[in-house]
Fold this protein.
Amino acid sequence: MTHAKQSLTTADGRMLAYRRVGSGPILVCHGGGPGFSGLYLQDLAGLDRRLELILLDPRGTGASDRPADPRAYAIEDYSNDVDELREHLGLERINLLGHSHGGVIAMDYAARFPDRVDRVILASTLARFAQEQVDAMKAAMATKASEPWYDDARAALEAEQKGEFETDAELGELAIREFPFYFATYGDAERAYLESLRDDVPNADTLRYFNQEIFETYDLRPQLEQITAPTLVVTGELDFITGPVCANEIEHSLRDVRKVLIPGSGHFVFVEAPEAFRRAVLDFLEA
């Protein structure tokens, strides 16, 4: 079993780092944020027992260099990095998993390069953020109003979305404070998981750019019609930001799709419901 951190040099001279974990068929994995490294994906609920996971540190996170241009964080920039990684790995086609913002990248990649993808796994993600998604998010947040952490988490979420952070460290602190909303139940295990990520300081440049320039206007639904690869859409039924409303919308735009809603789970499905998540992914890849 390998755990080595490896890297490639991109066409524009950046180092792009990734971690190889496990053994078996290769699954390229792109995490979210945007702005978080691949660390938070851990071993994706033990998928490394059956697969070799290529866990990418997206541009400007973890051990991957930041682009010289602080605005070089468009969706296409990220998916171009995925293609350089594919080429570096010597693979004509890849199985690609994207979680959260990584799912946005996976959708774009599979639509732009349909002949370079075998299967796609879209975990806890969304094709757009329109009023229906806003309403679902507000309703889900309201169910947590009696939680002791609610007021602080809500204040942190609002500050993050308004861009009220200057440094990477300030964003990291806001993220830790708002993350209770991302779990179906926030208890000791979830708190310990977040604490394990505290030293993985996020990239404030990319989240600021995404929130200000992309989040409220992007719409991948037309691109989804270009995806030919079989696709798994998996999300937690209690995910407050990329839940069933988002999964249903993606499902309706794809031609070859399997959807799995995991009961009792929020945004971090591989942490909250590891067995159900692992079974959904392996059943899909081995079908």
User: Anything to note?
Assistant: Residues 241 and 257 are 21 Å apart (CA to CA).
